[in-house]
Fold this sequence. Notes:
The complex is a heteropentamer. Chain B is of the alpha/beta class. Chain B has helices spanning about 15-35, 55-70, 80-90, 120-135, 155-160, 160-170, 190-200, 210-220, 240-245, 265-275, 290-315, 320-330, 335-340, 385-400; strands at about 1-10, 45-50, 95, 115, 145-155, 175-180, 205, 230, 255, 330, 350, 360-365, 370-380. Chain B is globular, with a radius of gyration of 20 Å. Chain D is an alpha/beta fold. Chain D folds into two domains: about 15-95 and about 175-240, P-loop containing nucleotide triphosphate hydrolases (Rossmann fold); about 105-170, no CATH class. Chain D has eleven helices and twelve strands. Classes of the chains: A mainly alpha, B alpha/beta, C alpha/beta, D alpha/beta, E mainly alpha. Chains A and E meet through helix 5, helix 11 and helix 13 of A and helix 6, helix 9, helix 11 and helix 13 of E. The complex binds adenosine-5'-triphosphate (2 copies) and magnesium ion (2 copies).
Amino acid sequence: MLYSVFIDPFVQMAEMPDFLLQVLWEGFVAGVLYALIALGFVLIYKASGVFNFAQGIMVVFAGLTLVGLHEKGVPAYLALVLTIGVMGLLALAVERFVMRPLVNQPDIILLMSTIGLTYFLVGFGEFVFGGEPKQMITQELGLPTGSSAFEIGDGGLLILQHIDIAAAVIALIMVGVLAVFFNKTRIGRALRAVADDHQAALSVGISLNQIWAIVWFAAGIVALTTGIMWGARSDVSFALEIIAFKALPVLILGGFTSIPGAIVGGLIIGVGEKLGEIYWGPLVGGGIESWLAYMIALIFLLFRPQGLFGERIIERV
Amino acid sequence: DELFVPLFSYRTGPYAGSGIPIANGMHDYLTMLNERDGGINGVKLRIEECETGYDTQKGVECYEQVKGAGALLINPYSTGITLQVIPKASVDKIPVLSMAYGLSAAAIGNTFPWVFNPPDTYWDGASAIITDIARREGGAENLKGKKIGYIFLDAGYGREAIPLLEQLSETMGFELLQYPVPGKEMQNQSSQWLNIRRDRPDYMVMWGWGAMNPTAVKEATKIRYPMDKFYGVWWSGGNDDAAAGGEDAKGFRTLNFHGVGSDYPVIADIKKYVVDAGKSQVDPAKFADNLYNRGVYNSMLIAEGIRKAQEIAGKPMITASDMRNGLENLDVSEARLKEIGMEGFALPMKLTCEDHSGHHKVYIVEWDGKDWQKSGDWFSPDVGTVKPLLQKAAEDYVASNSPWPERTEPCLNK
Amino acid sequence: MSNRIKHVELHVDDDGLAPGDVMLKLDNVSLAFGGVKAITDISFDIRKGEIRAIIGPNGAGKTSMLNVINGFYHPQKGVITFRGQARSRMQPYEAAASGIARTFQNVALFKGMSTLDNIMSGRTLKMHRNFFWQVLHVGPARNEEIEHRLKVEEIIDFLEIQHIRKTPVGKLPYGLQKRVELGRALAMEPDLLLLDEPMAGMNLEEKEDMSRFILDVNSQMGTTIALIEHDMGVVMDISDRVVVLDYGRKIGDGTPDEVKTNQDVIDAYLGVSH
Amino acid sequence: MTASASTEASPQRNILAVNNIEVIYDHVILVLKGVSLTVPEGGIVALLGANGAGKTTTLKAISNLLRSERGEVTKGSIEFEGARIEAQTANELVRRGCIQVMEGRHCFGHLTIEENLLTGAFTRRDGHAAIKHDMEMVYDYFPRLRERRSSQAGYTSGGEQQMTAIGRALMSRPKMILLDEPSMGLAPQLQEEIFEIVKKLNRQEGVSFLLAEQNTNIALRYATYGYILESGRIVMDGVAKDLRENEDVKEFYLGVGGEGRRSFKNVKHYKRRKRWLA
Amino acid sequence: MLYRESGQYKTSYIADQAIFPIREDRIGMGLIGLAAVCIPFFASDFFLNAIMTPFLILALAAIGLNILTGYAGQLSLGTGAFMGVGAYSCYKLTSIFPDVNIIVLVLASGLFSAAIGVVFGLPSLRIKGLYLAVTTLAAQFFLEWCFIRIPWLYNYNSSGAIEVPERRGFGDVILTGPSASAMTQYFVVLGIVVAITLAVKNIVRGRIGRQWMMIRDMDIAAELMGVRPLTAKLSAFAVSSYLCGVAGAMFIFFYLGAAEPSAFSITLSFQVLFMVILGGLGSLVGSFFGAAFIWGLPIVLRAGLPALGIGIAAETVFHIATMIVGALIIFFLIVEPHGLARLWSLGKEKLRVWPFPYG
Ligand SMILES: Nc1ncnc2c1ncn2[C@@H]1O[C@H](COP(=O)(O)OP(=O)(O)OP(=O)(O)O)[C@@H](O)[C@H]1O
Ligand SMILES: Nc1ncnc2c1ncn2[C@@H]1O[C@H](COP(=O)(O)OP(=O)(O)OP(=O)(O)O)[C@@H](O)[C@H]1O
Ligand SMILES: [Mg+2]
Ligand SMILES: [Mg+2]
């Protein structure tokens, strides 16, 4: 028993190093994609203290819009531009009709409003584009397809999908740009202020309307990127929305307010759950991936209740 | 007056990808009958879809809704919903037609007088796939020591085939490896396929649905699994499912029990009376693809059931319990197929009081990179193995659901 | 609403201390947060029955001192003796159980509850009926509720806040919130009551009212009071002894008059002598 | 309305004019029942009144923060520099030069003191150097803040937070400041200092002030004009000097009856009634 | 003045603490009670089966979650799984004790989910707010996994689903199983829900409820006033999970009749959460409003929309219903963030000052 838990998995790892590498790579890629979803959450949370439940559906919505437009005959790049436009409009609408009237309300109310938004977008998206899964227009967008295989040791094989490499690169660039933007600029500080206290932020002249429009737009762009990358792996369909839950442990691990946290959290979860599922999962019948991420996050939390990079929860009287 | 035929369908949610073509096919065939023949024997059909989203809870709701409205039969289109409504329908006396899905044991007509699962049960499907594998290996004895992987949607549907596969693995001596895919992880199967890569099964069998199928096909091509050793049950045979893998998915094969393509008079009629008349929701590019045709086949069973019921009842307006008689006495002959424009589209089929499924012949279609192609001939599942197991499963069902009502419905085709 | 309770009942102590005995004693207590030394090496005591004021400039460590006393902060160094017993790391609820109640500088009322419920919440420690009686809400549980409700009504009458009994406290103006908070602390019938700037944000009249309440509590219920306040008029008038902090250190301790003339205190805090 | 009558006569230009506003919370709770007041350009006006009189509500109505509390101005008008502002957003008002220091500090808990101050300069466009200069100025006013500049505001003491809130408002270089209980929680010498700062900004830079303050004594010493608010109505207004002389104000707000300062020790045990309500 | 408190003096604290201190409220409740009893005699089976019964059951689950989230301030996304624990326990209990009255078993099954709730509530001592949500999500997904992976739970059925057996009680009335009548099931559910709601009302207005609210509103202050976070939080988890468990058991036994693990998925958790928030955090009536809205509205829309525009496709109805529900959620939050319950009491407030616009 102890052997199969503590030793055997490592023996297996050592026996097939190429496979271990492949597992790590798959975990890495999954982690990057989780991180992308989490990033969208972080942006909005940072800027308003709102946990944006709709981020997952925004991913689907953005992807569907892109593919849907293309299906209607719009050239790929033009469709991309138009989709960005649509996400901009969505940001404006959300700011105007959801966030603005709910200024200064408790977090949970804002959370609820984004759930309402989710319903609306699901209905609207399916109404316009139908419910069929659509294939991502990977090639048309000039994204790499295909894969490369590397020989490792004798007979070992590591297969890397080009699209996965592209996803990792794009995600890292995105995280970098956003991290700089939000930490080093005036807007960045204003965002954190807004998240702390809406009313005080208003009172010092921070324009919530403008800020929220900006971050929702940024989150929309992140959603679009995520949609393209996930879509390339499977299909663009509403089933993707469910994967967005995986962003939760990622977020919590990284800390709700940290952009680098999203990527670190994503990688820990991505790699952790792959290793767990492949090497330990069989001990209990497999399928543990569905909860392992949450357990990993939970264990981290017991030691750091605010996540790895999150802001300390202030307790003072 | 009209005959109320509710169709449970799902054009929304994670399973819409498979649900939409099916719903279109079912809907369009029945509409065609209305348009072309003015219904069946002069009675128009009232076709109403109830959107379930493949969600059992909504399915129950749909059931309650149509039950009150005088439904002729229930057509749940989800194994989960079928399992839910079987006990209810048996009490409410509404026949359930679960065509090639649902509870395999429901084939035992004496236990489940109100449930029908023609032309084949899942166990027939599983046995057919193993039969084909055995054929390719040059005989059942060569399966000994082989590894067969089973990747399935971890829900009532995917698990339905496991008892049979386990049984076969025991008798035939192959090793069965199971790879469950949780419903909410359908689009994220990299772990399962990593495991498959490590275990290197000789054959893969898939029981997938909705977004699970295209993702699996893609993942299989990614790990460079030999696609011609990758089998799907009939429900993994959507055109979009295989197309996700594109050229790389060439060789992927699934079971089938009806024609592919549009070269049949019945399909031409649907096009003429329904699609071209703007009465269908189908995307013209996807007209007559594999799952669409399956919907058509499903509706043919409904229509033929109604006809039979009318014949037995001796009047065109029938009730749900007449409908049960119709289905139980269903006998679609070669000649009848020809009459309804389905010659070559389907094989003749027949149900009896004892056997509500029929264990009919199936064949294999293979993906050529663009479309499904028939590969090989129609062949029979291993009925000798399947039947006794079904009998036992039905007994188990009765035992665990006691008091289960005795069959009181008379058997007319005796 | 009922006006049956005319008389505020006296709380009788049973800790065996006579008025004037040392009730709480701090010896060389130090507390630091990272680099910030909130309290450095402070010793002082609070005697039973007195009103003890703690004053000092902003950030001197006054609030931290109260936090140490009721167990919310744990000092790195020093000994705290309460009723003759040295206390090791004590959890806040244990402090509460041993008879220490307090109010807060930033009003810390239970925002979602009415005034009545807020004050009832002060009775938590005194209520014991178990879960099953509570579910039924008959007999003992109901009697208990009513018995404590009577007590709370006394306090409400005493603080003259009858009219806001059922108002959610979040909607009250600041001054009334402070008063409700005092009521909540009183409901605990504490032996030692810690008040953190109870009169901030009040106008003169309200401060007079508040002073009256504090004096009454002290004299009628015999409650020992430690009080932080920036209004020197109030402090000098109502307190028995004053301790002065600056930068976490004690710079003065004595009667109001002594403190008033202490040059260190004048330099660091008062600015001009009052 | 005595309030408007007396000010209309004055020849000075008003930077702020509140005309007969009514405020309702939650659609049902009427809090301000026709409040009018004016602040002349370069004036310091004090708004006095008991708990719950509606001072905070008045200030929030002016700075447009009511909406976020589910309150609304249902009647009357508010003008800043001659333009109607009721329909504007709070940040627009700050941009125009009117900023509020909110009651109860409202610091950004997770930001450091310095970052808090910088958010005050959010609307400014006059460059880094100018902002830096002003920050030094704030630190000179409140040396304590300089010591704690890199602490998270949420962990600082009440007084430190109050200083931060005031400093933050100063950072926006406003034309007018609405101060809600500025002296709350500050040590006595600092209270005096705050008002010195008010006076200095007023003299040197012509900043106008409207302050709601409980410490009537100080407030009336520094203010030029005062209004007294009771249960949502202005009950008295006048030049600060006159108010200080008023018998009622003396008794109820300044605590100096006929016989000099009363001791808190000997306060009477009965509720007195304010004469002007009679 | 159609509705007023004035003129109704309370002469004792007992009267003051009554659940409905105002006469108009008592009359209103009486009418609702009467309606609840009479409905089955007029309504169709569909209305009872698909709307009323699940509405009541989900309202109970919402009350359960409301205790945790609305009263004790601990956000939970694991309601679905806790309901599942109740359902599976009840299923096991019925097969172990086939002769015990099913209602007893339903009530007992809540104890199991209470125990599990306490275990998953332990981290709440250290983890707060949205962060706590992840612990409950862990519970949700872990338990869901158990429902699939532990065949003992569903008696090794090959389908992995549980089927409700037929059980009789109260003489020979069929209570569960496919042959039970809609009316019987409705009345059983109504009885259980009303009884439990009253018990919960008693808890929340007493000491225990106040402790929960203290922890919710300001945990530090609560602790400084003598509330032990451990007991307060865990008791909230226990009571909350108990109610969810009972609701889960009823959901299967009196409504669905059979269930696969996916019946207790995260979707259900969210659905219940919507009910709580939309109805009003910390309000028991609110839970009923919320449940009626979230459960009833889509069904009514789906049934009603086709009647308006003839010939809308089923899925279009579905899409439009989804959109409307989403938009209405946002709309109601904007009108009144504190939920329908608050809207209700504001409405009463308006009536009180009527005919004046405000008082
Ligand atoms: N939890 C903490 N973490 C970090 N620093 C703290 C903490 N608590 C207090 N401090 C610091 O300790 C010092 C003393 O704070 P304290 O609140 O005790 O002051 P105070 O005397 O009450 O001041 P005031 O009169 O302004 O309320 C302050 O500089 C404060 O910033
Ligand atoms: N958000 C709110 N909802 C409902 N009523 C409110 C709200 N805020 C304040 N009130 C009510 O408005 C009245 C005026 O309150 P306000 O805060 O303006 O008084 P104030 O004069 O500033 O008092 P203080 O000196 O105590 O700060 C009070 O009776 C209060 O109960
Ligand atoms: Mg302090
Ligand atoms: Mg105020």
